[in-house]
Amino acid sequence: MKSKIINLWAFIVLTCLSLQAQTLSPSVISAGGGYATSSIGSLSYTIAEMTMVETFIQGSSMLTQGFQQSEVNTVSITDMEITSCNIALYPNPAKGQIILSYLSGTRSQNTVNIYNLPGAVVLSETYNTNSGLNTLTFDLSKYSRGIYFLELVTEHQGKKIISVNKINLVN
């Protein structure tokens, strides 16, 4: 009789403890990601948050891998008023040729780089530009359709100015 009471008491205590146990749910504030479960386990992942952590759960086992930044580090750039580089890129979307027009406050040497979506440079040229309106034409007909980025590197009052514009090539 005494062992039955002890077993009953142990059962009640364990039941109460399991009801009070903490449960973890995958909740993260991020720009993207997901959470997937299967019979093998679960996986959560995130994109564009300050942590890089993966958590694997299988049954009562949990494995978390990665690292987390303990604080947010910010970098700021002082705004400066720029009136010498107004850019127009047309036609966009483009078929074959694209025209870049921009105003320059001084005569200088400017560089134009065109990058594909993975970031490889597909075209890089340097031009001597005049003060005023400058117009450059680029033949992109030999490149496959997709998204490209045009980077214009100019100089204004001794400071390097980098302007980046998206090109949608529909060859």
Question: For the largest beta sheet, what order do the strands appear in spatially?
Answer: 1-2-3-4
Helical fraction: 10-25%
Low-confidence spans: pLDDT under 50, at least 5 residues? none
Structural class: mainly beta
Describe the biggest sheet? 4 strands, antiparallel
**Overall radius of gyration:** 30 Å
Q: Label the overall shape.
A: elongated
The CATH topology of the largest domain is Immunoglobulin-like
Look at the structure and give the mean pLDDT. Answer: 76
CATH architecture of the largest domain: Sandwich
* N-to-C SSE string, H for helix and E for strand: HEEEEEEEEEEE
Strand content: over 45%
Number of helices: 1
Total DSSP E strands? 11
CATH class of the largest domain: Mainly Beta
Q: How many angstroms separate the termini?
A: 88 Å
Short descriptors:
single chain; 171 residues; mainly beta; Immunoglobulin-like; 4-stranded antiparallel beta sheet; 1 helix; 11% helix; 51% strand
Provide structural commentary:
The radius of gyration is 30 Å and the shape is elongated. The model has no long low-confidence stretch (mean pLDDT 76). It is mainly β and 171 residues long. The longest helix has 18 residues, at 2-19. The protein is built from one helix and eleven strands; from the N terminus they run H-E-E-E-E-E-E-E-E-E-E-E. The strands form three sheets. It has a four-stranded antiparallel β-sheet with strand order 1-2-3-4, with no helix packed on it. It has a four-stranded antiparallel β-sheet with strand order 8-7-10-11, with no helix packed on it. The chain has a three-stranded antiparallel β-sheet with strand order 5-6-9, with no helix packed on it. The chain has two domains: 30-68; 87-169, Immunoglobulin-like (Sandwich), CATH 2.60.40.
